[in-house]
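One thing: can you check what follows?
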Amino acid sequence: MDTIILDILKDISVKTDSKIVLVVLDGIGDLPNEKGLTPLESATTPNLDRLAVNSALGLMDPIYPGITPGSGPGHLGLFGYNPLRYWIGRGVLSALGIGLEMGPNDVAARGNFCTVDSSGKVVDRRAGRIPTELNAKLCEKISSAVQEIDGVKITVRPEEEHRFVLLLSGEGLGPHVSDTDPQKTGLLPLDPVALDESSKKTAEVVKKFIDIVKEVLKDEHPANMVLLRGFDKLPNIPSMREIYKLNPGAVASYPMYKGIARVVGMEVLKLEGHGELLEEKIALFEDNFDKYDYIFLHIKKTDSYGEDGNFESKVHQIEAFDAVLPRILDKKPDVLAITGDHSTPCVLKAHSWHPVPVLLSAPYLRYDPCERFTEKEALKGSLGRMYSMQLMPLMMAHAGKLKKYGA
């Protein structure tokens, strides 16, 4: 069914001068704290409140009720693709996000530097979020120790903080290998297992790689081991330019989000300096607004603080975004959507299955009684409960970019 919808959208999409802006506050959805408030409800957000009064709100399921999304599927849905059909492994997104070139036979995985105790059990899946500078030194140390295994070229490159990319290049590699990340502390890293016959060589190479890295990192602290997940090859996904007739641009700092933007055909704008600073992102957005008719603006720290269980910092990040929101509004986009790719409740310190609030500011909206951009207010919104993949057609329609379907 989803391919039929994309075919229809491709047929009825038209090129216009109207502009669409999608702001993703990563992991924005949350659960109440001991005071009965979520970070959105706790934050002081006068600009978001004013915008909400004149917008339409609702709640979105990134994939399907009860299914907890990863960041890749969460964003694919926001870009109008059914994440249950179009699967992209995290490794591919990270590899493309840091600018690695992938051939059709290459397999990429996303890695975490982690901390294990003397028994080998994981005590910190992120090694205390080591700085990227230390990450780069550790990647160089691993690269010096291993360049090839069984005729397969090994490339290890830093991503951000504790994250790195493993790229395997060679013949006979399949992408279907299980994660080695147990997803919980107190457990041993898992062995890589081939999930089909074609991926046996990949699993064998990865197992040998991990054994080498374990020896290389044994005297390091806190990053004395690695966890791998999201093995995949380059996917075949139609671009947003092809389907929606858009000229899309992306403002994102974390490699994974730059990677998924590139996969769907966006031009990723280059951030200078420390790209996660809101000021740099908003300035880049302002400087390039006239060049694109669709801009994806990604804010990461709301998710990071949720994963850390840092309620107050998540509140402060929301307030920081509220302070720069007028600069987005000053550019007068024809359609503006503000939402998240998933929920990251501070109490869970992880992604969750809870729906995310969505705000749509656009022409020709129906009456909406919402007064704030919060989870509770979104329950009253005229957009109702929807899937995230339905947001893109709504934005296109409100921007006047969809022709009538049928006679």
About this structure: DSSP finds 14 helices and 14 strands in the chain.
